Amino acid sequence: MDPVGSRRTFAIISHPDAGKTTLTEKLLLYGGAIHLAGTVKARRAKRHATSDWMEMEQERGISVTSSVLQFDYGGLRLNLLDTPGHQDFSEDTYRTLLAADSAVMLLDNRKGVEEQTRKLFEVCRMRRLPIFTFVNKGDRIGEDPLKLIDDVEAELGLPCSPITWPVYQGSHLLGVVERREGSLHLFERTGDHGQSRVDVETVPLESDRAKDRLGADIYERLLDELELLEAAATPFDRDAFLAGEVSPTFFGSALTNFGVEPFLRFFLEEAPAPRPRSTRDGDPVDPRSEALTGFIFKIQANMDPNHRDRLAFFRICSGRFEPGATVTNVRSGKPVRLAQPQQFLARDRQRVEEAWAGDVVGLHDRGDLRVGDTLSSNGGVDFEGVPSFSPEHFARVLLSDPLRRKHLDRGLRQLSEEGAVQLFYSEELAGPAPLVAVVGPLQFDVLLHRLEHEYGVPARLEPLAFREARWVTGDREVMERLGRGYDRSLVRDHRDRPVLLFRSPWARQQVEATEDDVTLHTVAPDD
Ligand code: G4P
User: Which residue of 152, 287, 436, 516 has the fewest CB atoms within a 10 Å radius of its CB?
Assistant: First the structure.
């Protein structure tokens, strides 16, 4: 088996409740990693039942069991990277997409593109990631499929190319057509709520059996729709897909397994293996080259005060990873020994024996690594960094004990370097102290917890009424003027880059619509 050519590293992007957990389960079910779906779900339910996240982290130590699911399927080795949603949504969710080679965009057929999907999609677009679209919950009637794909195109600028197409009788999903093959997959409901594979009868669309099963009216309507798609829908083009310019689109239901198999088959055929990875100033690194290279895209702190170690998530970009090897941290020039590496599986963390480009391994870290660091066995390589993403929650830090100011500054600086929080500076808003900002509010809880337990600084946060941040480039005077508006403020980030904070998306849209002399960026421009 070609270890690099057989890797498929991907993530699912969706809004909470679109069915990500359910689809993940089905991937594992069809991939043979679990026999009865329901395992992932059961764990999630247990997890949600515990409301106190901190307490839970303390009990479990580092919670990474489902961060990366690795399983073999159809002769390939799949790495499914978890993109935490719900209350776990954080900057790490964005960063994870930097480690993926493709993404599955999962939509609820009644809701289409929702807020979190849009945000995650923006990161995919920035990376030109190939995106599959799966329109879920087809077992119950939703928006007209044509309208759904039009909406995706209108809202995201991403043309959808339907590979399958659903056939309904009233609100009842009869099956899906696989357009390229001209076949019709007819579903039988199983009695076990999708816990096992679904019984599917596949017949040629042109066959008498297809006509009989659908009935003349539905059959005719289906042919009309397919003709319309032939004329009007974006055709699938592999190169355009690989460049993130067209999304092969599927309809089905993760819950009942309807339409899941055609999607998976297509996914296995078309999802890209690891491709050459861009570096800051040299040639891209070929995943098959011998030197071990990769980058840190996420660092997870242990909330247990007895175990201060942290786990750094290392995405391998080339070479063969073996435990015990020594690489160089390109930023600091220091050697890093890859001791006690861990790989993540559906159930438990496991020790890694070897890993290749596309894989993610967890490295124990005592504070030497930062998000964005390149590790390389032959120096010389520096992968494009992990950018800062627009936070959505902002606060001032209030100290209970003013004499701890120095400790606070040190703590904030280190935590921001690690990537746990972003810092912004504004005399007007906070005097000399930094403002803290995060993507997901849970990061604030983690921040306070770590300040207290790691730096001995009990602190409180006073929320600020900003909702968005945008890095801004262009005319300085215009920036200054914009910063004086009543619903926005001009601040600086830790690298002294100007950033506008907005009290609402509307305030930001106003600036985008009316100001030509400045440009707003959702991720920090790398300079
Ligand atoms: P998430 O991880 O994206 O948040 O979604 P999750 O899979 O947990 O699914 C959210 C809800 O949507 C669940 O219902 C789930 O059963 C349902 N769901 C997922 N896929 C489908 C589908 O294809 N069809 C239909 N009709 N529903 C689907 P719930 O009531 O919140 O949970 P549960 O009681 O089913 O566990």
Answer: 516
Query: Considering only 71-85, 136-150, 281-295, 435-449, which range has the smallest mean pLDDT?
Result: 71-85
Highest CATH level, class, for 293-376: mainly beta
Q: Residues with beta carbon inside 6 Å of ligand 1?
A: 14, 16-22, 136-137, 139-140, 253-255
> In terms of residues, how long is the chain?
527
Residues 40-55 pLDDT 10s: 544 454 444 333 334 4
- Sign for the CA dihedral angle at 9, 53, 412, 502 comes to positive
For residues 91 and 501, what is the distance between their CA atoms, to the nearest angstrom? 17
For residue 17, the CA-to-ligand 1 centroid distance in Å is: 6
> pLDDT tens digits, residue range 143-191?
999 999 999 999 999 999 999 999 999 888 999 999 999 999 998 766 5
For residue 36, name the pLDDT band (cuts at 50, 70, 90): very low
Distance 401 CA to ligand 1 centre (A): 47
Domain 7-166+234-270 CATH (choose: 3.90.1150.10, 3.90.550.10, 3.40.50.300, 2.30.110.10): 3.40.50.300
Q: Separation of 85 CA from ligand 1 center, angstroms? A: 14
Closest atom, ligand 1, to C-alpha of 16: 4
**Positions of CATH 3.40.50.300 in the chain:** 7-166+234-270
Q: Domain 393-521 is of which CATH architecture?
A: 2-Layer Sandwich (3.30)
- For atom 32 of ligand 1, the residue with the nearest CA is 17
What are the structure tokens assigned to 482, written together? 């914009």
How far is Cα of residue 171 from the mean position of the Cα atoms in its chain?
32
CATH 2.40.30.10 domain extents, the chain? 293-376
Please say whether the beta carbons of 411 and 448 come within 8 A. Answer: no
User: Using CA positions, which residue lies closest to atom 19 of ligand 1?
Assistant: 19
Nearest atom in ligand 1 to the alpha carbon of residue 254 is 23
Residue minimizing CA distance to atom 26 of ligand 1 = 137
